[in-house]
Specification:
2 domains, 22% helix
Length: 282
Amino acid sequence: MSDLFIALQHLVPRHALSRFAGSIAASTSPWLRDRLIRRFVAAYGVDLAEAARGIGEFTSFNDFFTRELKPGARPLADAAQFIVSPADGAVSQIGPISGGRIIQAKGRDYSVAEILGCGAEEAARFEGGSFITIYLSPKDYHRVHMPAAGTLAKTSYIPGDLFSVNTATAAGVDRLFARNERLSCRFDGPDGHFASIMVGAMIVAGIDTVWPNTFRTHASAPVHEDYAGQDHSFAAGDEIGRFYLGSTVVLLFEPGRVEWRADLKAGDPLRMGEAIAARRPA
């Protein structure tokens, strides 16, 4: 069944399908909006009890999908000791960065430089470091937060494919996260230079940030932005962006900076703000 799903993805016009879905998701028609939301909640078991608003209070399906949560719904672990999960989701892969490569699934990997959209010099900073890939399912909260304190240094929007990012596709499509559309955000802070990469997927209608940006989702050319000298500083747990439909977050840390929780493994569920690693600041 997974082979058939992957084959179908190669056949369908993924960008056209995503643009069409995006136009539907942006509709403010109360009849369409509320019908979509109710069906989605029922189909995926979305927990609206933790959302700050209920059905009928959202302006569009996109507004619902990127819903904010009630205060206190995601307690933050002690950021003085821990790196925290940037999102709700499940661990796809976790481990070391070796030979400039990141594990995607058994027998498949991709390069640090590719997913970051940067040069060899910056990619080399992560050699021997650590990565974690977090998959956000449709029912999850889809805002992305800081795993640690830091100041935004630069971003790279990289246009690309729009394959699904679920487990089956990750196991069956080479270089999946390095070929899908993505936004690579790099920060400097007490935990060194680190990256948070927001990877889009099939039916993705958009990626956005809390700071002003000039990239446009589904664009045809990369957009690199330098934020040096601009004070976009964040504390651990601060919101930095959001996904409009399908998504994955990949975190990269320099060597010696983090020690992943010993019990954390592929498939484990995560909640935003939960401790995922012990900090090892220089």
